[in-house]
UniProtKB/TrEMBL annotation:
InterPro entries: FAD-dep_OxRdtase, FAD/NAD-bd_sf, Geranylgeranyl_reductase. This is FAD dependent oxidoreductase. Residues 3-35 form the FAD dependent oxidoreductase domain. The lineage of its organism: Bacteria, Bacillati, Cyanobacteriota, Cyanophyceae, Nostocales. Pfam families: DAO (PF01266).
Length: 371
């Protein structure tokens, strides 16, 4: 079996480490931080991500048993700030879990599978070229967005509110609001991430794509503050906050066309491979699945060169078609009234509303929406 180094212990790196170790390879899992550690994110675990977690032997009962903080999500509210909205329940359940909790759950799975952990910052693979190439047969680059190509930016804050003051129906709902201030594709959100007998912890945030963000004379902190003060839902909640954490901004590496995910012994996965959804910014499902498929590419190959070709093929087979479909849909959305029209149609057509909701939740591929 091979000696493999996985750089980065987020969802993609832990998935790769887990599957490679289970396959009998000697795996070193390197991350710049000691675990548990925080990761700034929207904290959403979509329905598609829940399915992907099963490939690592993590099921809903495991989440409920092992996660110290989580909220179960059984519906989505899609709206345009202060204008129109649609609430659609889902039969299947997703989750919102703080990444401090979620990433540590995956990290422990990888370590228990046999990965050897090391804490070390490797910001430039080429700077460590000789060491990595001489010591390992394969290099899995799972260092996240900073190893990919950032094309979106987001910001989130944690708010805590008394359960008695929070609308009961939204304790298990993800609220998503389009707003013309964010461009056509950007949106704000209110996600419950932990609920106990006294408090509900919320992840409140805004995400925008750089091609629209750079056209406006603003910054992400200002956009967040405008969302909080202008959106009726966030404005009302802000008056009820009993504690809050300072907002933190973070970049995203969403899908891009003609993507190359391997070169030489280096195999890029997760955010490092720009596998994040180009419409929703959700990256957990593809991150976890990329760890599975890169393992398959290595296991089916007799050399790093052949494995590199196979990983590119698997990317083109399992990821590229739907990512390209998402990019195509994104290109159609040129005017903000499209978001209002979308929700207007959802309010008048239940099957259409369910299709949009389950697509947004990662269960229906974008390519099925295209002619």
């Amino acid at each position: 079996m091979s000696k493999i180094v996985v750089l980065g212990a987020g969802p993609a790196g832990c998935s790769a480490g887990y599957h490679l170790a289970k396959s009998g390879h000697k795996v070193m899992l390197i991350d710049k931080d000691c675990f548990p550690r925080d990761k700034t994110c929207g904290d959403g675990i979509s329905l598609g991500s829940v399915q992907a977690l099963s490939t690592m032997g993590i099921y809903p009962d495991d989440i409920k048993r092992l996660a110290s903080e989580y909220a179960q999500i059984d519906g989505f509210l899609l709206g345009v700030s202060n204008e129109i909205s649609h609430l659609c329940p889902t039969e299947l359940k997703g989750y919102c879990i703080p990444r401090f909790v979620f990433d540590n759950l995956l990290y422990q799975k990888a370590i228990n599978a046999g990965c050897v952990a090391r804490t070390q910052r490797i910001s430039d693979i080429e700077g460590y070229h000789q060491e990595l190439y001489s010591d390992f047969d394969y290099i899995i680059d799972a260092r996240g967005v900073y190893a990919g190509e950032a094309n979106a930016i987001a910001i989130r804050a944690y708010w805590s509110i008394k359960v008695a003051d929070f609308p009961k129906i939204y304790l298990s709902k993800a609220q998503i609001y389009f707003d013309k201030a964010f461009g056509v594709n950007g949106y704000g959100w209110i996600f419950p991430v932990a609920v106990d007998s006294e408090l509900v912890k919320l992840n409140v945030g805004v995400g925008v794509w750089l091609d629209e963000y750079q056209k406006n004379n603003t910054n992400i902190i200002r956009l967040f503050n405008e969302f909080v003060q202008r959106n009726q839902a966030t404005k009302q909640l802000l008056s009820l906050v009993v504690s809050q954490q300072k907002p933190k901004a973070y970049p995203l590496a969403t899908a891009k066309r003609a993507n190359t995910v391997s070169y030489g012994k280096v195999f890029k996965i997760g955010d490092a491979a720009n596998l994040t959804d180009p419409l929703t910014g959700e990256g957990i499902a593809n991150a976890i699945l990329s760890g599975l498929y890169v393992t398959q590419a290595i296991n089916m190959s007799t050399s790093p060169e052949l494995a590199s070709e196979n990983w590119q093929r698997l990317y083109q087979l399992y990821f590229e078609p739907d990512l390209d479909a998402g990019l195509q849909i994104k290109s159609f959305r040129k005017f903000s009234f499209i978001n209002k029209l979308l929700i207007w149609l959802m309010n008048r057509n239940k099957p259409f509303a369910e299709q949009v909701t389950y697509t947004f939740a990662g269960l229906i591929p974008y390519k099925k929406l295209l002619p």
